[in-house]
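G., before I forget:
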Amino acid sequence: MHALRAVELRYNYNLTARGDSVVKKEMIAMLLAGGQGSRLGVLTANVAKPATAFGGKYRIIDFPLSNCINSGIDTVGVLTQYQPLRLNSHIGIGIPWDLDRNIGGVTVLPPYEKSNNSEWYTGTANAIYQNLQYMESYNPDYVLILSGDHIYKMDYEVMLDYHKANNADITIAALPVPIEEASRFGVVITDENSRITEFEEKPAHPRSNLASMGIYIFSWKVLREALIKMSDEPGCDFGKHVIPYCHSKGDRIFAFEYNGYWKDVGTLGSYWEANMELVDIIPVFNLYEEFWKIYTKSDILPPQYISGDSVIERSIIAEGTEVYGKIYNSVVGVGVKIGKGAVVRDSILMSGVVIGDGTVVDKAIIADNVTVGSNVRLGCGNYAESKLNPKVYAFDLVTVGEDSSIPDNVSIGRNTAISGITEAADYPDGSLESGDYIIKAGGEK
Amino acid sequence: MRAVGIILAGGNNKKMRELSEKRAVAAMPVAGSYRAIDFSLSNMTNSHIKKVAVFTQYNSISLNEHLSSSKWWDFGRKQGGLYVFTPTLSAVNNNWYRGTADALWQNLNYLKNSHEPYVVIASGDGVYKLDYNKVLEYHIAKQADITVVCKDMPENADVSRFGLVRTNEDGRIVDFDEKPMVATSHTVSCGIYVIRRRQLIELIEKCVEEDRYDFVQDILIRYKNMKRIYAYKLDSYWSNISCVDAYYKTNMEFLDPNVRDYFFNTYPDVYSKVDDNPPAKYNVGARVRNSLVSSGCIINGEVENSVLFKKAYIGNNCIIRNSIILNDVYIGDNTRIENCIVESRDTIRANMTYIGEPDNIKIVIEKNERFVL
């Protein structure tokens, strides 16, 4: 049903003004995908967070992009800045999401040089400000601001209806969270009509449990005026500058309560957790629903092969993978090879990972195209605090950055981080202690 | 490449038994994620043939759906493209395709309007990898009029459903028997031909003028002593899936690591339409051994020596052995399936038992209603 409605709406959106050349889109989306996601440690050393793999075959940005097309939004600007190569090649011209359009479609928007003032994107609102021209070319009534690092399914069309019904200037999607966790978020305080009366950023004693999800619908004129007005603000940010500004001048700002699954996968802990939730019998976040498909760029891949002596339980496994070992409670990506006698437990293996024969992997996140040798132990021993960065690596996970390799016969402790091509010599006594790390800059391939 | 491609995918085959009720043989799902025609189509695109026509006639809905976009095989370019030709009424014709030669005749304008000097004709039911450029080089080197791709089958193989050829020492075909009762040779025709475009147009026009409509009977066999018809021996994997036993066997051969390596891990790739299915999911109780599992499957039971196509659902305590479960099949709890092929989109109730024999594969078609929550 959703899909049908989406098609109808798309036609409405595509109306050009009576045959003349003025393009008109009711709502366009601006997707902020420039962030590094430094709290994902070595996972995002060479790749922007939105391009990080998720759920076996997907990348994080697939979720907001699929939401867009499923909500009937066919014009999406993707703002990139940090390490955009993977993101660019993933998005291409938008074919997987049906966003290759004659008018609209997906456009990748990196920062660019201007005649008077050239700068990087210094903040979320600044990035949008620098692309006023792009937005103006579609002559929208509403602009949807999204961020590229959340896992959720949401019908933005319903949110737009809500925005219109309230005659709002800005609508902010808000998630009810347990009150004891509310102090981690920006919370909004609303009156009985859901109109927002106050904002609190990470309050010590929250007065509301509605957390802002970083999803905004702006009426175009309001957004345009605010961005121009605030253009001199250094590091101009929606949450810190634009919304408070609009609030102070009395704009109608409403909270749109969202009650589905939503996960900010900003830390290694929440990233691991969100992946692991996918292997539940009936996952709260269900990828198998026909009416709200998640699309991704996918190579044409053969089925996976499971050998005679392998065991797989409570796991999801993507195409092209060959399993000769045992997998428990794990998320395995595309084209992975698990050697004979290998055991993978409670782990996330991204695409192209090779696990050698007899290797045991416990509680690890292994990024794309990592090669792990034979008879390696990953995640053994006792927990120890990370020597690299105890704030980032605080979740008792072995984290291996993309294109790394690990030699045969080494044992690697818990809560460790590895990046680059490592050799036996990098492991004194053939082991890496818990909490330790090996970061080799720019490992040669 | 200096050739246009034609894929003959119109056929039905009684030997496919109930499986042919739903679709043309060329649209049969193969090896979990593919359909039979993908192999010929991928060979075309990997041989840099830019323009390909698929002739279809019998129950072509599945096939048309599969070919609805040409982008998966990288056709859909400004130069060239993928065409699907079904029989149409016209001023000069009100027939179905009366045979392969008639199909070519009814679409003769496709050939006449092309400028490439050669034509590659392939059947849609072969599972193989072949660079047609090699056949074309051979064709030119032998100064042949027609080159037929052939395969030497083992002495003990049943070849009664193939065209059999005998060649002289130069490779020229001296004898061609179509499905003879007594095997005269063990070299079979793979149904892949290379021929000069003008030569083909000429032969087809003459053939139809005489009310003859079959490419093999009325051109290859009739002209074998007049035209230089050569056999190109294929020495790599080739299998024709157009009977149930061969279809079953071909799918099962993909459990062999050598076959998988050859098709999936060796250049060039085989392409197919991409479905947006999530990864396969293994729940508690899943026991999968020596099997192929495609995207979107959800497994709660036991699967052994089997091929699961896309979106198969296997219930709790099920036992699936030596079987092929086609696309989008739901199998209820406690069901036992051995030596079977389960037709696509079927719903199998709980507590059922279907047992076939290794040399008599059972085809399961239930057509039950599916109750979806």
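The mean pLDDT of chain B is 93. The interface with chain A takes residues 31-34, 71-72, 255, 257, 260, 263-264, 269-272, 274, 276, 278-296, 298, 307-309 of chain B (CB under 8 Å).

More on Monday.
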